[in-house]
Fold this sequence. Notes:
111 residues, alpha+beta, 5-stranded antiparallel β-sheet, two-stranded antiparallel sheet, globular
Amino acid sequence: ARQEADSLSVLHFYRELIALRRRYPVLRDGDLAFLPIAPEDRLLVYRRQDQGIRLLVTANLSHQPCALPDSLSSHLRTCTPLLTSYNREGNPEAGTLRPFEAILWQETAEE
Length: 111
């Protein structure tokens, strides 16, 4: 009952994630490509794309904040965050992921 009332709860996060899967079929059916990231960066980065829609997932797999590589950070400044695993108020910083944070981004069409 507490999670129902808390818009920032894990329950609400998963509901948002399920709604995004329904809204963006590319999350289910699109091509999947992992971006090359150095293992010491402790990141998982992959893209789903289909029919001109491109979504990018960035995930910090560690308990420490993690700076994104400059090339990726620069690219994310042109993307729109759709969902983050942290407090979803405000915009996430494109250059750093908080501990265990994951962000789903929509890429611009011309990229």
